[in-house]
Amino acid sequence: MSTVRFEGIARHFGPVRALLPTDLDIPQGEFLTLLGPSGSGKTTLLNICAGYLEPSAGRLIVDGRDVTAAPPRLRNMGMVFQNYALFPHMTVAENVAYGLKVRNVPRAELSRRVDEALRLVRLEGYGGRAIRQLSGGQQQRVALARAMVIEPAILLMDEPLGALDRQLRKEVQLEIRRLHLARPRTSIYVTHDQEEALVMSDRIAVMRGGRIVQIGSGADLYERPVDTFVARFLGESNLIEGRVEAIADGRARLAVPGLSAPIEGRAAAGLAVGAVASALIRPEAIRAAAGGIEAGVIERVYLGEIVALRLRLDGGHEVWSRRFAGEVPAGDRIAIGWDAGAVSILPPAEAV
Amino acid sequence: MSGAGGTSKGAAAALMAPALLVVAIVFLAPLVRLFAMSFEAKAGPMATYLEVLGDPIYRHVFVNTFVVSATVTVVAIAIAYPTAFALTRIGPAWRTLLFACVLFPLWISVLVRTFSWMLLLERNGPINRALVGSGLIDQPLSLLFNRTGVLIGMVQVLLPYAVLPIYAAVLRIDPALIRASEGLGASRLRTFLSVLLPLSMRGVATAATFVFLLALGFFITPALLGGPASMTLSMLIDSLVNERLDWPLAAAASMVLMVAALIVVGLAGRFVSVRAIAEAHR
């Protein structure tokens, strides 16, 4: 278990700036997720941490030691790859034992630790199997065991669920979470899947265009996104564009063309009076309210316990509302409202 | 159309017909004729085989052929492996250049290459002059008309057949495996020995099979660069046909060579599938 500190770490490939100078501190035992679309720099950051990629600038400090120039084999990090990267010519047990053999761990201890690692990922008795005999989910669990058995300072995971189908994804996702809770270990997890990020992470760093846009707990990011990009990337969102009318005491008022009353909400940083901004209203905050804004129901989507409604406000804006099935009124027209406390006024995402 | 399967099978047969016809007329028919001929000696049907397999001189030729082929295979693989490995590790410009160096000899006739070696290897040729001139040796080495000359020439001619399958095998190894190995703490040497080498062994087996089979039946190079003491089976067959005019004996020797080749293919088949050989040459 270790602390990790990125100090001004940057990387460019020729003229392409894959990662802008980035500072990031990860405390001991934290599960941090780098979340972002492809090309956002998240895998670059991970590969720099593992030592597979040299940074163009900056320093990487692990437990107070500068490891920027250390080769991967001296960093003691456990890496889990998207395509598993298991050695196809070795059995399950040989794969898991590889890192221990390299470290010259005595035979008895080695076999005890391999057995324990396989038990942890619930693959007891699979040690003698060939890799190709395993399902994708089992293979990724072997990869997890192989990475964890060396007691790595940091566990690195590069979209480990990316190659699995939906059902297995859920299964391995919960497996990783269970393993982390049983034995917290400093972990960096890369994904573009917001659900994975929310389920597993202590903190999430949302990345875009080679930099970290926002970092915080899942609740921070969902309830207090810094801009429209983060709002769109985490959860469902209704974003209504307008101009900032007034900012005071951490609240802002947004004038929206076509709406008779301005929308009020929490003011994010970076707003200016008169500038373009968007009001974020999460679908679950929109409810029927007598005397509210008149809206026509365009579409009803039944999702089991939830019903999603696509509404066209009389001003012409379209929004989604998600309510429990019992709360949804019948009819083609309803009056809607929302709590001002559930609204955020956000600046537009920076151009990339 | 009655069925897509039937139609495509019919079409496939039609497409392959010219090739099958050629193979049947110019290969299978003579082979059958040769097989029959090998039993047509005046001394009795099995006399040829008894002579080919029993005569110590012919046995010497068999042994020499196998020793030469095996040595060529080992040397060619030893040179080809690092070359193929380097090909997967260098930049595109260097790779193109190195590939050209590997493949260029294939575009030149074996005869031309073999005559070139005769010029290079002769007693007063550039290689001996350079060696004597540099003071490394006092007397010129005899590099021609003996086994040394045959080995040098055959290795050079057959090297591309060793490089290509190994290159294809190394190229197929997922680079993430190397990262995984290094990330788990392995040195470069350890990664090579534990991961890259075992995973490229199929390519090595394919290459070895190829080179060995081609070497077994090689004629021009051993005939021109070798001497009487380093006679190979193909040279023997040639002299049986052209000098002794003993067709049945030549046919029997050919059959023995073919059976030996088939045994090698059969043994190799345990390690290398025919498909792997085809893949290596895509």
UniProtKB/TrEMBL annotation, chain A:
User: What's an example GO cellular component term for this entry?
Assistant: ATP-binding cassette (ABC) transporter complex
Q: Which InterPro entries match?
A: AAA+_ATPase (IPR003593), ABC_SmlMolc_Importer (IPR050093), ABC_transporter-like_ATP-bd (IPR003439), ABC_transporter-like_CS (IPR017871), Mo/tungstate-bd_C_term_dom (IPR008995), P-loop_NTPase (IPR027417), Transp-assoc_OB_typ2 (IPR013611)
Tell me the superkingdom of the source.
Bacteria
Q: Where is the ABC transporter domain?
A: 4-234
Q: What is one process in the GO biological process aspect for this record? A: quaternary ammonium group transport
MF (Gene Ontology):
ATP binding; ATP hydrolysis activity; transmembrane transporter activity
Coiled-coil positions: none
UniProt record similarity statement: Belongs to the ABC transporter superfamily.
Indicate what this protein is called per its UniProt record.
Answer: ABC transporter domain-containing protein
Q: Which organism is it from?
A: Prosthecodimorpha hirschii
Query: Lineage of this protein's species?
Result: Bacteria, Pseudomonadati, Pseudomonadota, Alphaproteobacteria, Hyphomicrobiales
From TrEMBL, chain B:
Looking up Pfam families in the UniProt record yields:
BPD_transp_1 (PF00528)
Example GO biological process term?
Answer: transmembrane transport
Localization of this protein: Cell membrane
| Database matches in PROSITE patterns | ABC_TM1
Choose one Gene Ontology CC annotation of this protein and give it. plasma membrane
Looking at the record, the residues that make up the ABC transmembrane type-1 domain are 62-268
Topology versus the membrane: Multi-pass membrane protein
* UniProt-listed InterPro entries: MetI-like (IPR000515), MetI-like_sf (IPR035906)
| Sorted UniProt keywords | Cell membrane, Membrane, Transmembrane, Transmembrane helix, Transport
In terms of domain of life, where is this protein from?
Bacteria
Q: Which PANTHER family match?
A: ABC TRANSPORTER PERMEASE PROTEIN, INNER MEMBRANE ABC TRANSPORTER PERMEASE PROTEIN YDCU-RELATED-RELATED
Q: Which family does it belong to?
A: Belongs to the binding-protein-dependent transport system permease family. CysTW subfamily.
**What is the protein name given in its UniProt record?**
Polyamine ABC transporter permease
